[in-house]
């Protein structure tokens, strides 16, 4: 069973690829680590890649209290857009025109909010656990000065449009193409590589559990998912 939402915006080109499936949206956001935040600053568009985490019906972002553009946008209540895209494969058709990509993408529009001070620690922990699962338990806790120098922002998943494509190339037995030309899909698989210790890490230092869990799954490199 899926939960549908009524997005404020509709896709006009290939509208059949739009989905309002909330679970598909959550799956996309939970499978990626980086999105792109866009805002107009003094009439100039600015786009910045940022690590993020989904917590419930919000996307969490963080930045310095020193005056990053995201914090300024939040303070000024400027509308922003945040987009996330997963490329799942290349679709090889029998013409370049019909070739395509398999993908999932979502764009969230709204106004950034500053997470209240009494929720900052939990929000920073949620971000850290999403980006580096298990790592917070292996390192020292955050100094208050570090927390004070960081602002966590959140963007509600209220105004979202999601588009996706899956499957092989469009083809029909009588489409007039030469079917002796290969057509199909090349899936894209991303994997974490072997851990590389820092220069100041003493030789023989055990690799922590969080790194082992990320870099190996059943003896194979771990994917982002």
From TrEMBL:
This is Pyridoxamine 5'-phosphate oxidase family protein. It holds the Pfam family Pyridox_ox_2. Transmembrane segments: none annotated. InterPro entries: Pyridox_Oxase-rel (IPR024747), Split_barrel_FMN-bd (IPR012349). It comes from Agromyces indicus. The lineage of its organism: Bacteria, Bacillati, Actinomycetota, Actinomycetes, Micrococcales. Gene3D superfamilies: Electron Transport, Fmn-binding Protein, Chain A (2.30.110.10). SUPFAM superfamilies: FMN-binding split barrel.
